[in-house]
Amino acid sequence: MQSEAGVELDAVDKGYGAVQALRGVSLRVAPGEIVALVGPSGCGKSTLLELVCGLGAPDSGTVRAGAAALMPQRDALLPWLTALDNAGLALRVAGVGRAAARVRAHEHFAAFGLEGFEHARPAALSGGMRQRVAFLRTLLAGRPVLCLDEPFGALDALTRLQMQRWLAGALAREPRTVLLVTHDVEEAVLLADRVVLLSPRPGRVVETLDVLLPRPRERDDVAVVELRERALRVLGADDAGALGRELAPAARAGAPARDEAAPGS
Ligand SMILES: Nc1ncnc2c1ncn2[C@@H]1O[C@H](COP(=O)(O)OP(=O)(O)OP(=O)(O)O)[C@@H](O)[C@H]1O
Ligand SMILES: [Mg+2]
Fold it and tell me: Is 210 within 8 Å of 148 (Cβ atoms)?
């Protein structure tokens, strides 16, 4: 293990009964590195994050990781708690008192664009706001490794773009080791240091792309477009441009609607 803050998977197999989710997956994430995982639906991405977070054990192979916090694929805000208490939930679970957890969560509300919504319940927040509360909760868990499972999967295109920019800024302010699962190849190239492309189930690593581009990155940068097209070709898209536009909405079809609340984010 490189350090307490890295992630290391070696020849990991994981199945559920007859379903083989992951086969022979080896992956290293250095401390402070942002690695995106992209692959077709059902190829074992969420499974891989669960293994990194210690929520399951591999059938064979080894998983070693620093303490990791999971932002689950479905936003798991508790509907009866306010934004402030949802954000502070991980602190409460860790034994911090209610008042102290609220103070610590509130310190981030302005930077997270949540000021004025401290006492709003999730149903009264926009989709983007809910994602920011969920991300803040993950961040406040205080773990060196963040596992983000399609954090923007259910958002509309514009909100998604805003949130991508926002996440890049948040990680620049508070660097962490990040495993980011996304269906969106462009999102992966915009945010990650490396993009790991997975095969259809059973998921295995087919290629890793280094994204050696300065930040901030823009979606129409020539180098961003080139890398995106290359990733789509590896993933088996004949018309890479068209698939790039189709991949995310198709994948979103099964996700819960999270954007039905108040407009704006
Ligand atoms: N707890 C479970 N019990 C049984 N089967 C499971 C379980 N979790 C995942 N699977 C199966 O393992 C496979 C991989 O699932 P996983 O959720 O990891 O895929 P994914 O890549 O995250 O998919 P998506 O992109 O749709 O979120 C799927 O076939 C799924 O049905
Ligand atoms: Mg998943």
Answer: no
Taking the chain, what is the end-to-end CA distance rounded to the nearest angstrom? 39
Task: State how far the Cα of 221 lies from the Cα of 219, in Å rounded to an integer.
Answer: 6
Is residue 126 domain-resident? no
pLDDT tens digit string along 162-198? 888 888 988 888 889 999 999 899 999 999 999 999 9
Query: For the chain, what is the domain count?
Result: 1
Q: Domain of residue 241: give its range.
A: 7-74+145-252
Q: Is residue 109 in some structural domain?
A: no
Q: Which atom of ligand 1 approaches the CA of 254 most closely?
A: 26
CA 63: distance to chain centroid?
19
Residue 130 lies in a domain: no
Report the nearest-CA residue for atom 17 of ligand 1: 46
Predicted TM-score of the model (pTM): 0.87
Q: Tokens for 167?
A: 């996440």
